[in-house]
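Entry type: protein chain
Record version: 2
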Amino acid sequence: MSPPEQPRKFFIDRSLGRVAVPRLLREAGWDLITLAEHYGIPHDETVEDIRWIEDSAKLGWAVLMKDKRIRYRQAEIDAVIEHQARCFVITRGDLTSAAYAERFVTNQVSIFAIADTSGPFIYAVHADRLERLYPPRL
């Protein structure tokens, strides 16, 4: 059985940076665009989360981000739901760029397979697994 193909493109939020994490993921074969590449510098620093969630979802891009409090940010959750966004989030803020990229690459097969399904959803990306945060399992 061959691994799932990568969805069209991933969108990387500013929380993961403009350079190191995108470079490491591209080296691992990911097709992605950063918030800075999409909106331009310095405008990327002022784009609200609900705006880029909507825009990336409309363009069909799954989202990679870092946000330890995503499950408590109702406006962002509402945007994910409304726009059927597909999100993968690292909920730790104390890792190196290499460690963030490694988490995505380690979970690449699962991320690609899940990203190919319909949203809305948010999955936490751990060192060795994904955990569905939204919608919660009943």
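Comment: The radius of gyration is 14 Å.
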